[in-house]
Design goal:
The chain is an all-alpha fold and 171 residues long. It has two domains: 8-75, no CATH class; 79-170. 63% of the residues lie in helices and 0% in strands. The two termini are 52 Å apart.
Length: 171
């Protein structure tokens, strides 16, 4: 996570207390930031601390909010990220990715689209140079499994009755 060097709140703290600015920078993006700021604002070092000027206290509190927002933004996954996460966790995808990386990359690009099933059909049925030699059985089964998973995850683009992979062909 990128540290906000241009933050006016950080500048307020760092200008007056460079050593605290350095510590903030070192823990940015971790839970330790909240702990650090909390200890700075709440603990008195055995009674010897006078406290921070109000503007620095406000800046420290604002930095906690900036940090929480930055962490939340980093954790938000897009719908596409979630779709790809689902795909990459499927054992069938791993089988293809290990043996045919180029094909796995194309599958990743087409996952969730109406182009996916026609692409798999073409992979299995066609060849550039005549009859296809075929995939190893494990890969063929993985491709079929992905078509089934795709239909369940994306019913809006599931195989049509005219597709080879449609359920009507397996009754």
């Amino acid at each position: 996570m990128t540290f906000p060097d241009d933050s006016p709140h950080f500048s307020t703290v760092n200008t007056r207390f460079r050593h605290i600015g350095d510590r903030l920078r070192s823990v940015w993006g971790t839970p330790a930031l909240s702990e650090l700021v909390g200890s700075l604002l709440l603990h008195s070092k055995g009674g010897s601390r006078q406290g921070f000027p109000l503007e620095v206290e406000e800046a420290l509190c604002a930095l906690i909010e900036e940090h929480a927002s930055a962490v939340a933004m980093e954790r938000k996954l897009t719908v596409r990220d979630k779709e790809l996460l689902l795909l990459t966790r499927l054992p069938a995808f791993s089988v293809i990715d290990q043996r045919f990386t180029r094909i796995a990359n194309i599958i990743r690009d087409m996952w969730g689209s109406e182009l996916f099933v026609p692409y798999v059909n073409k992979l299995i049925q066609e060849s550039k140079d005549g009859p296809r030699m075929g995939f190893p059985q494990e890969v063929g089964e993985a491709l079929i499994s992905l078509v089934v998973e795709h239909g369940q995850a994306f019913p809006q683009v599931a195989a049509q009755e005219t597709d080879f992979w449609s359920a009507a062909n397996f009754k």
